Amino acid sequence: MTDYSRLAKNGLWTNNMVFAQLLALCPVMAVTGTATNGLGMGLATFFVLVGSNLVVSLIRHWVSQAVRIPVYIVIIATLVTLTDMLINAFAYELYKVLGLFIALIVVNCAILGRAEAFASKNTLWDTLVDSTMMGIGLTWALVMIGAFREILGSGTLFANADLLLGESFGFLEITLIPDYKGFLILLLPPGGFIAVGFLLVAKRWIDQRLSKDKKEPTESAGCSVEGHGA
Amino acid sequence: MSETSLQDRLGYQSLFLGVVVFVTCALLAFAYQMTREPIRLALENDLLNNFSQVLPAEIYDNNLLETKTDIQAPWGEFSWYQASLNDEVTGVVFPLTAYGYAGDIEMLIAVRSNGEISGVRVLVHRETPGLGDKIEVSRDPWITEFNGLSLQDPPPSDWGVKKDGGVFDQFTGATITPRAVVAAIKRGLEFFEAEKATFLTPVALSEE
After folding, report:
1. pLDDT at A168
2. How far apart are CA B175 and CA B177, in angstroms?
3. Residue B112's closest CA among B95, B132, B92?
4. Residues on chain B bordering chain A, Cβ-to-Cβ distance under 8 angstroms
5. B115 has pLDDT over 70
6. A187: in domain
7. What mean pLDDT value characterizes chain B?
8. ipTM of this model?
């Protein structure tokens, strides 16, 4: 059990694709103008990540070292194309928003990295746990960045959520700041970098507080934050 | 022969890669067949939805998609659609491209048979959010100002933004975008006048 909780902690927090590995930044910057787009991109990547890693784990005994990279890439590219066609066919409104970026999942090195580093060496079950956690970690990171940019950039949260999740989720759409003039730079590409920067600081800060709680005197002398307990 | 030495042989490696590619291609071909029809329907629905925005429902009763015809314009070839009511041509719908601040702005325009604009909508653009994107009807009613206008009203010389001596409003902080849109609409109307004979002759429907 400890092994799985370690995998979960790794994927969700310690080794989070975006906030720790700093991978997958291309889709992160490109689509996270709103929380809904972040969620859509996160779910599409999640599907490709879990699917491709399961297949890689399934065939790991037959793949020879010399051709493993092309094999993994073919598998990932196939799943991305499938995702692309399915979203185009059955969620056309979402496709109009995400369409351009779905193809980018294939160059998302985090997926190939996970296939190479974990799935090719571990059992199907372990791979399922690992890739699910990594996928959820990526999705929440994208939603966080999207929410950060959307709240400060346009004063709403989960705008157009009904396009992604169906009419019944329309209640998610919140206008936080009515008559908000908008803060343009956060919606433009630089806003992606700014949002990721602030969220990285937040994560580092939480990490430091946590490690401080564990062992009283920490080595970081420069940190002078007054402790009130986490 | 152990498993590892088998995997080191060139023949095994190429065969394995071949099998993987074959299986994935078969999968993709199957998925393509399965999604082709839904994708076509989604695109058609999208187009019909756009038509209904520029053309009021009471001025046509035909299936616009059936009247799709290609025509050569000075700026390139495009497809146009003819609207008719009780077999009488009432208007045409065709796409327009404006050359905006950040690339092409794709638009759809509907012109009534008397040369008046029935409606214009911007479909795709990359203009600056918050400034140039007021050309979207969901953000600003500006684009509906064109409804009912024609080359006679206002006269061709007044087809421009106010900054250029025309009659149309520009946006605060964005002149290039509305200027491009106005120019494209004017270009579209002029093309309609020039090709009026073609546009207003009932299109022969191809029997399926």
Report:
1. 67
2. 6
3. B92
4. 3, 7-8, 12-14, 16-17, 20-21, 24, 27-28, 31-32, 35, 38-39, 42-43, 45-46, 128-131
5. yes
6. yes
7. 88
8. 0.71
Classify residue B171 by its DSSP letter. Answer: B
Residues forming a β-bridge with B93:
B81, B110
Which residues in chain A touch residue B172, judged by CB atoms under 8 angstroms apart? none
Whether residue A27 lies inside any domain: the answer is yes
DSSP A106: G
Q: When comparing pLDDT for B144 and A178, which is higher?
A: B144
Parent domain of A96? 7-207
pLDDT recorded at residue A228: 38
On whether residue A1 sits in a domain, the answer given is no
pLDDT at B207 over 70: no
* Facing residue for A71 by CB, picked from B3, B20, B129: B20
How many structural domains is chain A composed of?
1
**Residue B46 near residue B65, CB atoms below 8 Å:** no
Nearest-Cα distance to chain B for A92, in Å, is 6
| Contact assignment for B20 to A88 by CB distance below 8 Å | no
Residues in chain A with pLDDT values less than 50: 1, 217-230
A30 at B interface, C-beta within 8 A: no
User: Residue B72: which of B191, B202, B196 has the closest Cα?
Assistant: B191
Residue A223 lies in a domain: no
